[in-house]
Structure formats: C-alpha cells, structure tokens
Fold:
Amino acid sequence: MLFSELGLLPEILRAVEDAGYTSPTPIQAQAIPVVLAGKDVMGGAQTGTGKTAGFTLPMLQRLARHANTSSSPARHPVRALILCPTRELAMQVHESVVTYSKHLPLRSTCIYGGVDMKAQIAELKEGREIVIATPGRLLDHVQQKTVHFSAVEFLILDEADRMLDMGFIPDIKRILALLPKERQSLLFSATFSDEIKKLADQMLRSPQLIEVARRNQVSETITHRVHMVSADKKRHLLLHLLKERGLSQVLIFLGTKFGTARLATWLERQGVNAVAIHGDKSQQQRTEALEAFKSGKAQVLVATDVAARGLDIDDLPHVINYELPHVAEDYVHRIGRTGRAGKSGDATSLVSPEEKQHLADIEKLIKFKIEQVAVPGFDINTGGGERDERVRSEHGRSRDGDRDGGRGRHGSGHGHKHEPRVGHGPKTAVRLPSPSAHLPVSADGFDFSKPYEAKGGAGSAPPSADKAEAPPRRPLRPVAALLGGLGSSGKKS
Structure:
C-alpha cells in the first residue's frame, strides 16, 4: 500500500514525499482511514511503530478546512490538543507536526516545563491551532489563563501507559473536564491496564481498537543476553564490555536520577565519552546531550526510563540494562529502541542476585528464557573478588584463634605490625580486663575488686581470673554490720 491510496490531501502527500516516505507502516495503514472517518481510536502501539505519523497525518487533514493565512489570533484558536508524558516526546511529536504541515497554513506550538513560560505565552497569544503539551505545564497555562479550549475539536493522548506510570492521570482528568464534549479523541498506549481502560471509557466514545502487534511482543531481530554479576562489580563489567566489544552508540538504562548521573561521571573518568539525561537536567542540557549522542560525539547515553521516553534514535545498535526495571513492561519499552525496521539489535542486561525475581517477571512476560552468558572474571559463581576472599580468610583465622601467635595478615611473623584491629574479630577471641582490675589488694590479702571474698593470708596473691571455680565464701553479713552498725546483736557466730 502507498500513502497516495489513503485519501490524504495533496499538500500532506507532498510533505510525506519530502520526508522520504512512500509506504505506510501497519499502524499508519490501519489508523489513518479510521481517523479520517471521524471515529475515536484506542491504539495499541509501541515505540518505533510509526504511530506518531499515524495520528498526525489524519489530524492535519481534518484541520485543513480551518487553515488560513490571517494574522489575527482570533482566526487561529486551539483546535487540536496533543498530550505527551515527557518533554522529549512532546518535542518529537511537534517536529513531526511541523514536518507534515509545512505546506498548510496551520500553526503549532510545543509547551513543556523546564523553560521560561514567557515565550510560550507569546506564541499562544499569536494563535496556534495545534498545541503539543505535557500535562503539568499545560495546567500552569490554564491557571494563568493563557490558553483556552473552547474551540478544541481534536484530542490525542500519546503513551497513556507512561502517563499512568508518572502519576499524570489526575492531571489528564482535570484537562478532560475543561474540553468541549463534542470532539474526536485518540488514545495510544503500549499496554492496556485496568486504569488505562477506565481512562479510555471516560475519554473515548465507541472507540475502534487498533493493535498492530501482540502486546509486549519484542522484535525477533533483537539478540537478548544476561550477564550475572554482583552489584558491586557491575560498573567494571560494563566498562569491560564497552572496551572489549568496542561498542558505540550505547543506550544504558538505570532506575534513578542519582545513579544515572553517578555512572555517567564514572565512565567519563575511565575515558568513555558519556552523557546523561534525567529529570534534574535542564531542557537545554537534555537537548545538548541527545545531540552529542546522535552525532556520535558521545559513545554512551545513560538515561532513566522517564527521561528516555520519546527518544527517537535511528539505527540504535545497543541497549544495556545496567539495572533491570521493576516493571516487566518497561523492559519491552527499553529494548524497543533497538532492532527497528527489521535491523539487528542487541539487548544486554547486567543482573545481580537481588534482581533475579525481576528477570523472572520479564521472561514470563516475553514468554522465553534469556540466555545467560558468563564473563570470565565477573561471573557471580566465581566469587566476590580479592576483597571478599581476604575478608573470608580473616574471619576464618579469627574463629580459629590464629591471631594469638602474633602473626600478621600474611603469616609473616612480624608481631602486631600487620595484624588487623581487634574489633574486626569475634569478641570471644579477646579477653578484656575487669573494669575494677586497677583496684589495689590490701596488705591482709583483701581484694577490693571482690569485696566479699574469703579472707586469705597476708601477702597471698589474689585468685586467678582464669580459674573455673571460686573459693568457698563465708556467710554474708548485712552491709550495716560491715560499716560498724547493729552492735553485738547483729553479729553472727
């Protein structure tokens, strides 16, 4: 099938041809006619399927009747609203809208957080038929009354599953309440959880379900492998893989912003040109990092799931899961950035023992076992390395009492010079003096550290602390008697 067979306007077809496309992808072939017919759509599509053009092209055609060259803002009210979970995805969608609308007098703008609102407000005041936005920043404009929805007739919610993961559903519902009831709505999601279905029921009217591939299906052109490794050796294994295999254009996933920044910094110190994107980066920093990676200046891009959402990188050969995602579906999202359009891709996961359950969940979802490949020197079954061997051997000597001979860590016999601190061994191996051992012994043999001991002869040595049995004691007297009280009646024979 060709794009020319889908009933698109000549202006749109010309823009598609200018972009170098002639044939639609499966989701484009299915979605475009349905959207052109004015029906609501619930689309099941993952990253890299071409869904952006699948809703952009028919949206532009339905808005073409409003296209005009007037300079009056009143002639360019907001007619289409596209909601995206992240700045990167919003920018990607806006780029697609600009590409395919270049032969139509339609205006568009992209609204997201992390930048000054003044430029966005200026564009909205000029009039924009198409607004691509992240929910939070859009609500900021609603609060400041710089955007109005009375003329909206087209709503698109892209990557609804990620919206749910990021906690945007309440914001989405607030926005829905502000929109006209009479509109056409499209919802796209890689997965359809119960929450997404509830949102679809609220947002869509008799939608047509379009799915181009089985949910959570991974590309057959991707090679999957797992390296089992202890958590403290992961970064060294990663460095080994990057250098030994000569990898370039590698997208590495972590679960936290802090871990992402720290790993990128460490790789830089090891001579690897790495950049990071995460939620704490400014929009300019994110854009610069992504451009450096796309151009090849950066060998590695380290990212969190949220920050990487919406990244569109052509011919990405390698994805490495430095940490497995806690949600199995995120594994499919991550590796879906490689092996696109029938090209080969590589998905490598570094898995510590603590992550075995996450691995099992992923294998259950994708319905096959991932090959586990041992890397010499890093395999989890070879032990924890030199440091762990030293700790284990030291603990073994402590239990056997080998330190009593004054031998050092290597048994060199140099006294206490190399002996580990006493506090590192079991407490039973060390005999500490009694807290009252400094107290004197009286001339008549009375030991003040044992005030009720039997009285021995003058000059007799105090009993040894190591003796198993104490000498028999005479009957104890009341303390008052010892202090000279009670008189003769208090004395005992």
